[in-house]
Amino acid sequence: MKKSLLRWVKNKYTLSTTIFLLWLTFFNEIDLIYIFQSRKEVAGLKAEVKRMKDDNEKATQALHDLTTNTYSLEKFARENYYMKRENEEVYVFKERPEPVKQ
């Protein structure tokens, strides 16, 4: 067992491959850890771009709907700015925040 292990350590190809892999993994400027972190960051940024594109499409659709449809404009004004018609009462119900559990 000991001779077999010693033979693997003395082999120049095994030794050079081990040193090369250690260099790539830890000591190089652009090591494997940096590459994996960068890929994770890129995936997160791509997801954020997709979410922003979806939000942009929704906002564009809402703007088009508000500029072309008077009913949706009135609904938007009532919901967001609490506007009302004459002889009409507006009641605003707000949910109570839940107490913080410790």
How is this fold's topology laid out?
Blueprint: H1 2-10, H2 12-27, H3 32-68, H4 70-81
Q: What's this entry about, in short?
A:
The protein is an all-alpha fold and 102 residues long. The protein has helices at residues 2-10, 12-27, 32-68, 70-81.
Straight-line N-to-C gap: 58 Å
Count helical runs: 4
Which bin fits the share of residues in helices?
A: over 70%
By secondary-structure content and strand pairing, the structural class works out as mainly alpha
**How does the overall form come out from the CA principal axes?**
elongated
Oligomer: single chain
Beta-strand segment tally: 0
Question: What is the percentage of strand-forming residues?
Answer: under 5%
N to C succession of SSEs: HHHH
Q: Averaging pLDDT over every residue, what do you get?
A: 86
Please, could you describe this protein's structure?
By secondary structure, this protein is an all-alpha fold. It contains 4 helices and no strands. Among the domains are: 30 residues, no CATH class; 40 residues. 73% of the residues lie in helices and 0% in strands. Helix 3 crosses helix 4. The mean pLDDT is 86.
Which descriptors apply to this entry?
102 residues, mainly alpha, 4 helices, 73% helix, elongated
